[in-house]
Amino acid sequence: MTVGTVFQASDLAGARRREFLGAARKGGALLRDTDGFALTMVPLSQLEAIAEVARTAVAALLAAAALGRGQARPAELGQLAWLAAFDEDDRAEFFGELRDALAIAEATRDAAPVETCLREWRTTARALSDPLAREILTGPGDDDYAEVIRPEE
Question: Which candidate, 10, 4, 51, places its Cα nearest to that of 30?
């Protein structure tokens, strides 16, 4: 958050109250109390996004550390336990995509890219956890294809 104007506690009771609220709505307002204690007011959606980015980043670091020590049990992966469904290459791809999503989310203060990344990978992990589905999804395909033409309206 970049802070342009520092507001005083007395501004909340005066005419600058609207200016303070306007700055908060635009991304953040810094309020300095009479004893020098600083408070920040930001839109709730931005605070929630920042918290989600932080939680996910910590979970990813802990999971990566567990995986780096060798064969990690799902319980050691914490909230990313579903990563156990993937092989090493797939996990590396996941961490790459998650890093990109975290960077975008942090820059925009919007957790949607992180939420989308996690949802898509969790969905794939759920599909791969069924042995029959895993065999179909990861097994070799056959070469028995037929050309399909576009349906007419």
Answer: 4
